[in-house]
Write a structure and sequence with these properties.
Length: 275
C-alpha cells in the first residue's frame, strides 16, 4: 500500500521567500512606472504586464513548493488480521497522481486570459480616473493669481519704449496678452543716490484708450518695486484685463514714486503695440 506526502518544509520556506521577493520587486517596479510621465494607455499596459508576470511566477512557485509526489509504504495489518471481534477494513490503495505540466500551463493560460483582459481594463480605468483626479486637485490647488500667467500669451509690443525722469529710467520691453490679463515686463534703472520705491498695488496703472484703466495684481507679477541707488530692477507687472484688438497704444504709469526728495514723483511711459 502506498500513500502521498507533501514537499519538505524547507522547500516550502525557500519557495515562499522567492515568492515574497518576486512580489516585492513587482510592487517596486509598478511604483516606479507610475511616477513616469506616461499616458493612461501605456501606464495601464505596463501595470498589467507587471501584474501578470507576478501572478504567473506565483503560480509556478505554488506548483514548485509542493514538490514531486512521493509514494511511501503503509504498514500492512499484522499476520492473522487485527485481534478482536471488530472488522477492520484493509487500507484503501491510493494511486499516485502524477503532476501534469499541462495542468500548470492551463492554469497560466487562464490567468493570462482573466487577469490580462480584465486587469488591463481595470488598470486603464484606474489610471484614467487617477489622472483626472490629480488634474482636478492640481487645478484647485493653483492660486488664482498664478493662473493668470500660466498662459504666457501673445507678444504685442511693437518696439521697446523708455522714459526718463530725474534719476529714474523705466523701460518697457514686453507686452503680452492672454485671455485674462496683460503682462508687462519693465526694467527700472536708478542713477540717483537714494533708493526709489515704485509700488505696484493701487499705483501701477495701464491706460487703454477708449476703455477703463487696467489695475495691477501685485501677487501675479515679479516686479518688486524697490530700485536701489545706482542699480536696476527687472520684473513683470500683471494687469487684470486685455486691450481690445483695435488698440495700438498703451500708457504704463506709476502714480506715486517714493524715496527721494529730489523726485521724480511719478512717471508714465507710452508704448506702441500691435493690434
Amino acid at each position: 500500500m502506498v500513500g502521498r506526502t507533501r514537499g519538505s518544509m524547507t522547500r516550502k520556506v525557500v519557495w515562499g521567500a522567492v515568492g515574497y521577493g518576486v512580489t516585492t520587486l513587482g510592487t517596486l517596479l509598478t511604483t516606479y512606472l507610475t511616477k513616469l510621465h506616461i499616458s493612461s494607455v501605456l501606464g495601464s499596459i505596463l501595470a498589467t504586464t507587471v501584474g501578470l508576470v507576478v501572478v504567473i511566477i506565483g503560480v509556478v512557485i505554488d506548483a514548485a513548493k509542493d514538490g514531486p509526489e512521493e509514494n511511501t509504504p503503509v504498514m500492512p495489518p499484522p499476520p492473522g488480521g487485527y485481534p478482536g471481534r471488530y472488522y477492520w477494513p484493509a487500507p484503501r490503495q491510493i494511486q499516485p497522481q502524477p503532476r501534469s505540466a499541462a495542468g500548470t500551463v492551463s492554469v497560466i493560460a487562464l490567468v493570462i486570459v482573466l487577469c490580462g483582459g480584465g486587469g488591463l481594463g481595470l488598470a486603464y480605468g484606474a489610471q484614467y480616473l487617477g489622472h483626472k483626479a490629480i488634474d482636478t486637485l492640481n487645478e484647485q490647488a493653483i492660486p488664482p493669481w498664478e493662473k493668470k500667467t500660466q498662459d504666457p500669451g501673445r507678444e504685442r509690443i511693437s518696439k521697446a519704449a523708455a522714459r526718463t525722469r530725474g534719476a529714474l529710467t523705466v523701460t518697457v520691453s514686453s507686452v503680452r496678452t492672454n485671455q485674462q490679463a496683460t503682462i508687462v515686463t519693465i526694467t527700472a534703472k536708478n542713477a540717483g543716490k537714494d533708493s526709489l520705491e515704485l509700488p505696484v498695488y493701487a499705483n501701477a496703472l495701464l491706460d487703454v484708450p477708449g476703455a477703463n484703466t487696467l489695475n495691477a495684481d501685485p501677487a501675479a507679477g515679479t516686479f518688486g518695486g524697490t530700485v536701489p541707488s545706482g542699480g536696476r530692477t527687472t520684473g513683470t507687472i500683471v494687469f487684470d484685463g486685455v486691450p481690445s484688438p483695435g488698440v495700438t497704444r498703451l500708457t504704463l504709469s506709476f502714480a506715486h514714486i517714493f524715496g527721494s526728495l529730489s523726485g521724480p514723483d511719478n512717471i508714465a511711459i507710452s508704448v506702441a503695440i500691435s493690434s
